[in-house]
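[recover] target loaded
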């Protein structure tokens, strides 16, 4: 084989032998002849890198396959060599569907080598990857107060713990029913997170989300490592806050890292700013990590329910029981009704950035996204604000929004988050968040954002070798190595606003 032929052969990448399309690994020029396993394919038009080229004919009305599953329906005849995108493929999604319980046997894996990370053992038995003081608030009225306390505390107590961080939000007042409950559950869950060696919880005094009611609803919070007060009842909330943080620092600074098995690691799985390579490189790579963690007895957590639409059956057939299947269907259908009740189509996704990166339909985005969950059995389904229980792959109710879903992952107990991206984002969240680029161009362009380059699997590195390297980074991060987002001071939360505002 000549070098020219080799370069041509590596220009497009089909995922499954049944597929109608392949991903362009570089910009393709109209008239260029490509070699796909001895089959010549002529690009009929210019096709951008990351977008799809037809490698099989699809007639109008026929399902178009990628990953071996339908990503939409052809609206016109699609010839071999055509650019396949929003102009000739439309979604098949319409509304709530019926699902049948047809479980598949879990795929066997090889023996998992025993691994450990250096973490913090907490009183409730959970393991943390950081030893920080978190300043939380019941209501947005004291959000800036929380920020000011954290800023001064970091100056005053520098080096004694892993840092003091405020996680403000705009909610907690003028909320009713489930909307108020969502806010209360999220704050309570964060207050019991194992990465927090101490928590200061601020209230205002007159808000709907009353401090006492929040604490009464959360018996799992370690009261020895909690300080709280309503700011309307003290003379100087800043000094009282700093005194409370100092008391927490005096407790937390005595904590020491110790070896903890990976079986106690909770790993959040998230993608944001996806592109045409996300489902080819970064997401399946993270799926390998999810399998490694699950096989070791740990807990990978998959969320972003709207980005399951169109790929439900890939996940549902791995439900460990009929009960888990029914719970997963309930979460998926409830989210579809949430769209319908708000007069929105369930397929109003992907985003403009996703489309520019080569993703055509929600089905395509979802089929790429669910690969982050690997191949492990689905053993638990959580509603928004709930926390992980049994070890194994877990599905968590939350929207696709990066900040909202990553906050929900943290509240569920994630102590490390793996965040795949094809477009890039600086955002970081309470749990250390590793940004994994789907393409090497992004990793090279934004080294201050990206922790790991999954694009290397297109440059000769095997998926298995890349997964071993990424797993090493996960263990190092759990043991204290700072992520790029942490180094940049990117630490945010966002709460799902799902109801009316008074």
């Amino acid at each position: 084989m000549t070098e020219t032929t080799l370069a041509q052969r590596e220009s497009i990448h089909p995922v499954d032998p049944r597929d109608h399309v392949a991903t362009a690994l570089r910009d393709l020029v109209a008239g260029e002849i490509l070699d796909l396993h001895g089959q010549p394919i002529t690009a009929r038009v210019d096709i951008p890198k990351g977008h799809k080229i037809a490698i099989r004919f699809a007639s109008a009305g026929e399902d178009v396959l990628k990953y071996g599953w339908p990503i939409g329906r052809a609206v016109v005849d699609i010839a071999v060599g055509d650019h396949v995108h929003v102009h000739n493929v439309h979604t098949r999604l319409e509304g709530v569907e019926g699902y049948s319980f047809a479980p598949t046997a879990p795929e066997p894996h090889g023996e998992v080598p025993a691994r450990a990370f250096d973490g913090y053992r907490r009183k409730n038995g959970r393991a943390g990857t950081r030893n920080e003081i978190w300043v939380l608030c019941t209501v947005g009225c004291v959000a800036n107060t929380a920020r000011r306390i954290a800023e001064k505390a970091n100056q005053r107590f520098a080096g004694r713990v892993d840092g003091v961080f405020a996680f403000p939000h705009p909610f907690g007042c003028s909320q009713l029913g489930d909307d108020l409950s969502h806010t209360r559950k999220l704050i309570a869950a964060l207050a019991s997170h194992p990465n927090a060696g101490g928590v200061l919880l601020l209230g205002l005094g007159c808000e709907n989300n009353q401090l006492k009611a929040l604490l009464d609803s959360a018996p799992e919070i370690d009261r020895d490592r909690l300080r709280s007060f309503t700011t309307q009842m003290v003379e100087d909330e800043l000094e009282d806050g700093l005194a409370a943080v100092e008391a927490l620092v005096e407790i937390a600074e005595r904590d020491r890292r110790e070896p903890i098995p990976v079986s106690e690691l909770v790993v959040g799985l998230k993608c944001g700013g996806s592109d045409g390579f996300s489902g080819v490189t970064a997401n399946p790579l993270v799926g390998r990590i999810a399998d490694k963690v699950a096989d070791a007895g740990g807990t990978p957590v998959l969320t972003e329910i709207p980005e399951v639409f169109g790929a439900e059956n890939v996940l549902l057939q791995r439900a460990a029981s009929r009960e888990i299947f029914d719970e997963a269907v309930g979460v998926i259908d409830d989210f579809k009704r949430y769209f319908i009740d708000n007069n929105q189509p369930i397929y109003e996704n992907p985003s403009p950035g996703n489309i520019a990166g080569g993703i055509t339909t929600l089905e395509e985005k979802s089929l790429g996204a669910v690969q982050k969950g690997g191949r492990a059995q689905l053993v638990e389904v959580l509603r928004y604000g709930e926390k992980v229980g049994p070890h194994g792959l877990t599905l968590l109710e939350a929207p696709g929004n990066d900040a909202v879903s990553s906050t929900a992952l943290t509240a569920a107990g994630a102590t490390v988050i793996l965040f795949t991206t094809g477009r890039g984002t600086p955002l970081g969240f309470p749990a250390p968040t590793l940004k994994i680029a789907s393409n090497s161009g992004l990793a090279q362009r934004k080294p201050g954002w990206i922790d790991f380059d999954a694009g290397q699997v297109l440059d000769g590195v095997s998926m298995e070798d890349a997964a071993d390297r990424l797993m090493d980074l996960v263990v190092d991060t759990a043991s204290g190595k700072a992520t790029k987002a942490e180094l940049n001071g990117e630490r945010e939360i966002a709460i799902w606003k799902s109801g009316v505002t008074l």
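[recover] notes: Residues 182 and 385 are 7 Å apart (CA to CA).
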